[in-house]
Automatic annotation (TrEMBL):
Residues 187-379 form the Fe-containing alcohol dehydrogenase-like C-terminal domain. Keywords: Oxidoreductase. Residues 11-176 form the Alcohol dehydrogenase iron-type/glycerol dehydrogenase GldA domain. InterPro entries: ADH_Fe/GldA, ADH_Fe_C, ADH_Fe_CS, Alcohol_dehydrogenase_Fe. PANTHER family: ALCOHOL DEHYDROGENASE (PTHR11496), HYDROXYACID-OXOACID TRANSHYDROGENASE, MITOCHONDRIAL (PTHR11496:SF83). Pfam families: ADH_Fe_C, Fe-ADH. This is Iron-containing alcohol dehydrogenase.
Length: 382
């Protein structure tokens, strides 16, 4: 087996870790930074907390609070314009995956010309970037550990990605305390995103010894802790374990990648305007069922981690159905829909989802790619 292990950023992890933000940014040689976040982070008072911490360290802070869910190229360009005009020396992303992805793309445009669309794809040529610090406030996307930035292209009406080492932060600060009091819906959706990262990465044709260790641990941590985190927004132990689970799944899928499940989730976001977490909830069981015939031993291992008692004589198809159904039960118990029918999507929307899934290039990392017809069959449509 030959595989590459991508470099990982330094991480400050633990309850209260965000109090070290100003100190760390100062160590990076930044006296003026752009702080990127959304209105939810502003309203929760988290942005003010980080702003004050930076100010006390003698750092001038320029704020950009224009991030929206699935940030568009227009949002990125607006943030980059503000950063350039104020001649900031670095960028800080604070929030969920949308804010972190926006911060990555903005930081690229701080030292590279617009438009951001010219950097879509794998390892596009670009100039060296400024220091980037990422501080997640959800346990789900793992974006603080990845080389990927997702940007919604307004002209193509597609989610595009920038896959580059320049998307890795200079430092990641993971403070589980920042995830306290998240609404149960957000906790559930971001937690299923974590589970999707770990499962898809585990089933990937790029999986390796290291990613297997990380993914198996992330799957176990998520099954053991996500229900409690959803039930009790103030359970710090469950929040800490989910933050760690999200982080290690991010490390894993940066190396072995996600594929069919995220292709479906991204298509559901584009065609049906579903949130990423809901898209993952609908796609994950289908992904397991579709790939069980290709990697039955790995699907069985997932079932073992879940604590299922699976007969050794099960066919690969029955194995996939059993594990997939039990993941649906888990998802429903979190208050999320487990099937396409429960989500109430019409057939024309599903046809569009199937077409977008089939052309998603992330499917090259799956043991088997799915055509649009096969995706429709997964949806229960001929």
């Amino acid at each position: 087996m030959i595989f590459n292990l991508l470099p990982r950023p330094p991480v400050i992890f633990g309850n209260g870790a965000s109090y070290r933000t100003g100190m760390k940014v100062k160590e990076l040689g930044c006296d003026k930074v752009l702080l990127v976040f959304d209105q939810g982070i502003k309203n929760a008072g988290i942005a003010d907390k980080i702003h004050d911490n930076l100010s006390k360290a003698g750092i001038q802070v320029i704020t950009f609070d224009g991030v929206v869910s699935d940030p568009s190229d227009d949002v990125v360009e607006e943030g980059a314009k503000l950063a350039r005009e104020n001649k900031v020396q670095g960028v800080i992303g604070l929030g969920g995956g949308s804010s972190l992805d926006a911060a990555k793309a903005i930081n690229i445009l701080l030292t590279n010309s617009s438009p951001v669309s010219q950097y879509y794809g794998i390892n596009p040529p670009m100039n060296k970037v400024k220091p980037l610090v990422l501080i997640p406030t959800t346990a789900g996307t793992g974006s603080e550990m990845t080389t990927v930035s997702m940007v919604s292209d307004t002209e193509k009406n597609l989610k595009m990605n920038i896959l580059s080492p320049n998307c890795l932060p200079t430092t990641a600060i993971v403070d589980p305390e920042l995830t306290l009091r998240l609404p149960s819906q957000v906790t559930a959706e971001t937690g299923i995103d974590t589970l999707s990262h770990a499962v898809e990465s585990y089933l990937s044709n790029q999986s390796n010894y290291m990613t297997d260790l990380l993914n198996e641990q992330s799957i176990k941590l998520t099954f053991d802790n996500l229900p409690q985190a959803v039930k009790d927004e103030n359970d710090l132990t469950a929040r800490e374990n989910m933050s760690f689970s999200s982080m290690i799944a991010g490390i894993a899928f940066s190396n072995s990648m996600v594929h069919l499940g995220h292709a479906i989730a991204h298509a559901l976001g584009t065609a049906a305007k579903l949130s990423h977490g809901l898209g993952c909830a609908l796609a994950l069981p289908l992904t397991i069922e579709y790939l069980s015939q290709e990697v039955p031993e790995r699907v069985k291992k997932i079932g073992d981690i879940m604590g299922l008692e699976l007969d050794e004589g099960l066919s690969s198809e029955d194995l996939g159905q059993n594990v997939g159904d039990n993941i649906r039960y888990f998802i429903r118990d979190l208050g999320l829909p487990g099937t396409i029918v429960e989500a109430g999507l019409d057939e024309e929307t599903l046809k569009q989802v199937a077409k977008l899934t089939a052309i998603d290039n992330s499917q090259i990392f799956a043991p088997k790619s799915a055509s649009s017809q096969e995706v429709m069959e997964l949806f229960g449509k001929p």
